[in-house]
Amino acid sequence: MKILVTGGAGYIASHTNVLLLERGYEVVAVDNLSNSCEESIKRVEELTGKKIAFYQGDCRDEELMTKIFQEHKIDAVIHFAGLKAVGESCRIPLKYYDNNMNSNMVLVKVMEKFGCKRLVFSSSATVYGVPKKLPLTEDSPLSVTNPYGATKLLGEQFFGDISRSDPDWHVMLLRYFNPVGAHESGRIGEDPAGIPNNLMPYVSQVAVGKLKCLSVYGNDYPTKDGTGVRDYIHVVDLAEAHLAALQHIDEHQIGIYNVGTGVGYSVLDMVKAFGKACGHEIAYRIAERRSGDVAECYACCDKAKKELGFVAKKNLDDMCRDLWRWQSENPNGYHA
Ligand code: NAD
Ligand code: UFG
């Protein structure tokens, strides 16, 4: 089977590409490298001994997307391409709606033209907005708290409408919780541009000495230690969920799944666990709450287990150990 992976040089895509190639899928990747670099593609090829047909370009470029489908008989698409920085999406909403929504539309247009109607979409726990009841199940109420989240929710609605319009379409919407960690080889991992927005890349850069001190955004939430609680999932487990989604895609016209572990850890739990993995304490200070953050967010993962046979296997120590290996062996990410 030949899979087109959009955003194929990115963090989650690179880990998914390894599994796809190891399991005998062929991978075609497209990425405009707006938040990644081609080195991740090379490293995946190095790890697996297999080639990726890589196209540098934009998913909104209909001509390029048509060329890809002309040159390859694509069986299914995993659509990772998207911008994901919540803060930036509030400052420059047009950039997010343009990139994330127009990519979806051009992709579907070209897929329809070539009769390729299997799609796995990267959605997010952000579509649940402020949780009213935990754990979050797939039928918990949906809402939007920022433009990034709006593009994910609209994306879900768009792909849902497409799949309902034609029984040949099969769409899987995967709602990721908080992906962390790296491949156990230490060769691929998350390589954020500039100062990281997310907790674990920040913590790992403090550990390696690139940043001085973590700001813990709030210790007065109604949680066990007052800091925010999230459902962190190892990125290799998350990658596995895509393989499971592909295997089950023909059984569903539209499948919606939470992809997490079902376990919530606080910011201080994460700081402590990472300190254990890297062998020294992580410097932190308590700061103001970050606007838009929720106190607690974790998934009910029963549906993915029941329908896809997917269960996350890696624990917090695995996440921290693998992230530390990646960060310490590649202090500047993919850049020498
Ligand atoms: P990432 O930035 O590492 O990967 C996204 C890739 O898409 C990047 O390589 C970027 O260059 C590329 N890209 C963006 N717009 C493009 C376009 N128009 N055309 C071609 N390429 C384009 O991010 P990631 O963490 O791997 O996330 C992958 C997907 O999962 C995104 O859609 C993101 O919104 C979603 N997601 C991520 C998280 C998370 O915390 N990492 C959580 C929930 C959902
Ligand atoms: N945090 C800090 N200090 C930091 C960064 C984060 O204390 O420097 C705290 C946050 O306040 C929060 C927790 O760490 O309590 C996790 O924050 P992240 O930024 O790592 O992750 P979020 O849960 O805020 O958001 C992530 C993605 C979103 C996605 C969401 C749900 O960034 O795109 O998970 O999938 F929508």
Topology:
Layout: E1 2-6, H1 11-22, E2 26-31, H2 39-48, E3 52-56, H3 62-71, E4 76-79, H4 86-91, H5 93-113, E5 118-124, H6 147-165, E6 170-176, E7 178-180, H7 199-207, E8 214-217, E9 229-230, E10 232-234, H8 235-248, E11 254-259, E12 265-266, H9 267-278, E13 284-287, E14 296-297, H10 302-308, H11 316-329
Parallel strand pairs: 1-2, 1-4, 2-3, 4-5, 5-6, 6-11, 7-10, 8-13, 9-14
Antiparallel strand pairs: 9-12
Helix pairs in contact: 1-2, 1-8, 3-5, 5-6, 7-9, 7-11, 9-11
How would you explain this protein's 3D organization?
This protein has 336 residues and is of the alpha/beta class. It has a domain at 2-182 and 232-260: 3-Layer(aba) Sandwich (Rossmann fold). 40% of the residues lie in helices and 18% in strands. It has helices at 11-22, 39-48, 62-71, 86-91, 93-113, 147-165, 199-207, 235-248, 267-278, 302-308, 316-329, and strands spanning 2-6, 26-31, 52-56, 76-79, 118-124, 170-176, 178-180, 214-217, 229-230, 232-234, 254-259, 265-266, 284-287, 296-297. The strands form four sheets. A seven-stranded parallel sheet has the order 3-2-1-4-5-6-11, with helices on both faces. The radius of gyration is 19 Å and the shape is globular. The model has no long low-confidence stretch (mean pLDDT 97). Bound molecules: nicotinamide-adenine-dinucleotide and uridine-5'-diphosphate-4-deoxy-4-fluoro-alpha-D-galactose.
